[in-house]
Design a protein that fits this description.
Largest sheet: 7 strands, mixed
Oligomer: single chain
Order of helices and strands: EEEEEEEEEEE
Helix content: under 10%
Distance between the termini: 40 Å
Radius of gyration: 13 Å
Strand content: over 45%
Shape: globular
Number of helices: 0
């Protein structure tokens, strides 16, 4: 069982950058694959970036590939999402989530979720 607390959200101009952080507690963090997900008003939750339990592999949805980087520090029980060249389409509530086993961009296979942090990209 994991609990997550996200931080780092805020408002930025298009082209700006943000770093989101997720602090985990409650279980052995290094056993879990971690994903970042987002949900815009009126839209379904979508996978943004995922990272394997070891941190050796990651996956990004096509719309953020080349702009976002996911990383984790298993010594500190944290996972970060570095977001660059932000676009208005990146606006939404961002969640971190954990699952046992292989990483996935599908939100329905994740068991443990944080409360979310708002990211707003606008001029």
């Amino acid at each position: 069982q994991l609990q997550f607390v996200e931080s780092g959200g805020g408002s930025v101009r298009p082209g700006g950058s943000l770093r989101l952080s997720c602090a985990a507690s409650g279980s052995t963090f290094s056993d879990y694959a971690i994903g970042w997900f987002r949900q815009a008003p009126g839209k379904e939750r979508e996978g943004v970036s995922t990272i394997s339990s070891s941190g050796r592999s990651s996956t990004h949805t096509e719309s953020v590939r080349g702009r976002f980087t996911i990383s984790r520090d298993n010594d500190r029980n944290t996972v970060d999402l570095d977001m660059h060249s932000l676009k208005p389409e990146d606006t939404g509530v961002y969640y971190c989530a954990g699952k046992n086993g292989v990483r996935s961009l599908r939100p329905d296979v994740y068991d443990y979720w944080g409360q979310g942090t708002q990211v707003t990209v606008s001029s």
